[in-house]
Amino acid sequence: MAHLRFIPLNLPEAAAAAIVPLILLASFYFYARSKLTHPENVPADAASKSLTATWLAAVAMGILLILLALRAATAHSLVSTVANFFDSSLVLALLVLIAWVYYRLTHQLRDFAPFLLPMAAVLLILGITLSFTSERQFHDDNPWTVVHIISVLLGFVSFAIGCVAGVVYLISESQLRRKNRTQWTFPRLPPLDRLERFTRHCIVVGFPLLTLGAVSGIFRAVEDPHALGHDWWFSPKVLLTAVAWLIYASLLHVRLAPALRGSRCAWMSIVGFAFLLAVLIAANWMPHG
Amino acid sequence: MESMIPHSYNLLMVGINYRTAPIDLREKLAAGAEKTRQVLSRLRVDFPHGEFMLLSTCNRVELYSAFPIGKDPSENALIDQLAAIGSVSAEVLTGHVYVRHSAGMVEHLFRVASSVDSMVLGETQILGQVRDAYQLACQLDVVGTMLHSICQRALAAGKDVHENTGLSEGRTSVAGVAVELIGEVFDSLADKTVLVIGAGKMAGIMVKHIKAQSPRRLLVSNRDAQRGSVLAAQLGAESIDFTMLDDGLTQADVVLTGTSAQEPILTSGRLRNLFRARQYRPLFIIDVAVPRDVDEDVGKLPNTFLYNVDDLNRISANTRLQRGGELEKSHAIIQRHVEEFNAWLGARNSGPIVKALYQQCRDISDRELAAMFAEQHDLSDAQQEAIKKFAHRLVGKILHTPVTQLGQHSVVDRRLQLATAVKELFRLTDEAAKAPDNPEPTNRADA
After folding, report:
1. How confident is the model over B317-323, as a mean pLDDT?
2. Which of A193, A197, A200, A253 to mutate to test the interface with B (most CBs of B within 10 A)?
3. Under the phi-then-psi rule, with left for phi > 0, alpha for psi from -120 to 50, and beta for the rest, what region is B427?
4. In this structure, are residues A9 and A149 in contact, taking their beta carbons and an 8 Å threshold?
5. Residue A164: other Cβ atoms inside 10 A
6. A191 with B318: Cβ contact below 8 A
7. Could you give the C-alpha distances from A199 to A272, B400, B402, in angstroms and in order?
8. Which has the closest alpha carbon to A136: A218, A222, A237?
9. Does A287 touch chain B (CB under 8 A)?
10. CB of B343 closer than 8 Å to CB of B410
């Protein structure tokens, strides 16, 4: 059983990775400054601020790509590139940023897209922090591992986008309920029903991936019972995953649970994602494999 | 003074709008396409020298005209024509009608086309209405050089304002705000049902705006079933019995209430009971009734959004404030277009005068040169040529500044005064200073 060597982080790489979330947050700040309106403070030079935001995010994306290419070049295989927390958080952030580019170009969700930038930043910060506390690495000689990693990553991105859509829904709803626009307001967010539909789309895409990830994870645990310990099914990782899975499953059935519409759907997409993040952290602290 | 200005055209506009005249008077004068045709045809017969355009919308009726100087009718004659559209006497219009002359008329039309003068600031409809009015006048051949130029520039100014300011990015009327807020909840109303409760006036205005969003179904329910079905017929809506209101509420996505009921008819308890039947779909309620038709608590229910007239007014006022900057930007754009037009007009009007002025000075210089050459026999041909060149250059240099001022002085009325002054100071003959294109009816469509 050939164990993969963890590609150690060197200082330039860690520094470059740490700069990216800062750039992303700065980008979102500029975007917010260009959009947020206030009766006494109509955004001046909004166009140039918005352009700055786009450039900053593009630069962050460039740094991420270079970093990933460097890391992949020293790894054994593509899978091993994403088989640790640091690299997989780079991939997650990159996928979220690709989604940012995509939705920025759509007509329907262009004003939603910039909210993905802080999400990419959070994922990176979490990944970098976790990689300093552990050097855990998957074994890639098991095909279930490959399936597990890929499906979990893609599912994770999908739920992350759904979570952002939920946050934007709640922002928009609170603006609507506030009824006065004398405070800072994001004008022209997508309509609530479009955001809710989009949240559900994200969950519809993420759910099978999460299921596949869980099942492949179980197969892996069964094939290699020593990797996770004997009581793996009681581990926080598995239990938290089960909770997240149930939350998302309930959201899929609007017809059975129509009460889960509107802000409840938004809240649950956020809570579900919080559980997934908890899984990530729990997985990091588990003793084995 | 007016008659002394060497202005080849007199521009005159008379009109009424939503600020100056009540709705019933505007309705009387409002002219559809067919009526406008008739009016313009009659004007063509009555004033063969004039150019006309009639702009008629639900918020304004304005008659624009341009006449060659000396052929222009009085203000009152034009007001009579305006009154005749609605078959009312001119006295009825007293106190409601406004008049704009020359540069004032140009600026007014530019402002109208840019929707800066509209009831709903920033609306884009008016630009199309100005275009239609202009095209109709073109079809009837009552537009000539002057109105062609003014209308085309007005359309350009309107387009410029809409494209380069945020003015038209939202509407500021209360009804417009309501429609915008609905748009923050629902993607489109094409698959949504709108329920109107009550048949009051305010609700009627609001419903027209919402209907413009073409909802899938429009339901009307009124305590007085007969009035309800009349309103439903007017709106092309389905009427439902007031006792069956819960059914309507179950189907509705947007509810507009404006009844004269003294007690709230929609309470949070009533709506909560319908939640299951409504499948917890979002509900947007607009309450335009005074006293309120909807309990304040309703706004706290999940997935339910409640706005009353005060809320809408407040947001509308905020938005107007926010758009203050855009309004200033629009004014600047309009001013630029007005100045460009004035420069064009000035160049056009001062052209003949400038030509006559140069001619006169060159004549003097040629005469004096000839006299000098007759006395000074010892000048060589080359020397004579040099002196001639010098004299012409001197004339050009001396006249350069006054001529520039004549054509490009920033204040159009001042420019006209200057032109008159030059004409008098240099005793330029009327013949020389006359506009080259003395407008004849045959000259009409030359722009």
Report:
1. 63
2. A193
3. left
4. no
5. 31
6. no
7. 12, 71, 71
8. A237
9. no
10. no
| A positions 40-59 inside 8 Å of B (CB) | 40, 42
Do B395 and B365 touch, CB atoms closer than 8 A?
Answer: yes
Q: Each residue of A168-187: pLDDT tens digit?
A: 999 999 999 988 666 778 87
Domain boundaries, chain B: 2-170, 174-321, 343-443
More confident residue, B170 or A48: A48
DSSP letter (8 states) at residue B32: -
Q: Across all residues in chain B, what is the average pLDDT?
A: 83
ω before B22 within 30° of 0 (cis)?
no
The minimal CB distance from B318 to the residues A39, A259, A263 is found for A39
Residue in B with minimal Cα distance to A108: B187
Q: CA-to-CA distance for A137 and A108, rounded, in angstroms?
A: 40
Token look-up 């040529």 returns B385
Query: How close is the nearest chain B Cα to the Cα of A165, in Å?
Result: 14
Q: Please state the separation of Cα A177 from the chain's center in Å.
A: 28
Q: For residue B361, indicate whether it is catalytic.
A: no
Which is more confidently placed, B353 or B400? Answer: B400
Q: What single-letter amino acid sits at A218?
A: I
Among residues 247-266 of chain A, which lie with CB inside 8 Å of chain B? 258-259, 261-264
Nearest CA in chain B to A198: B187
Average pLDDT score over residue span B373-380: 86
A107 shares contact with chain B (CB less than 8 Å): no
- A39 closest CB neighbour out of B185, B282, B322: B322
Token pair of B36, please?
């406008």
Please name the residues in contact with B147: beta carbons below 8 A apart, sequence gap of 6 or more.
B51, B52, B53, B64, B65, B66, B137
Model confidence over B247-282: pLDDT tens digits? 999 999 999 998 888 888 999 999 999 998 998 899
Q: CB–CB of B303 and A261 under 8 A?
A: yes
User: Which residues have CB under 8 Å from B404's CB, separation 6+?
Assistant: none
SS3 percent helix, strand, coil of chain A, rounded to 5, is 75, 0, 25
Asked if residue B435 lies in contact with residue B352, where contact means CB atoms within 8 angstroms, the answer is yes
Q: Which residues of B touch A184 (CB under 8 A)?
A: none
B168 three-class SS: helix
CATH of range B2-170; options 3.40.50.2300, 2.70.70.10, 3.30.460.30, 3.40.50.1100: 3.30.460.30
Distance, C-alpha A278 to centroid of its chain: 13
ipTM, two decimals = 0.84
CATH 3.40.50.720 fits B174-321, yes or no: yes
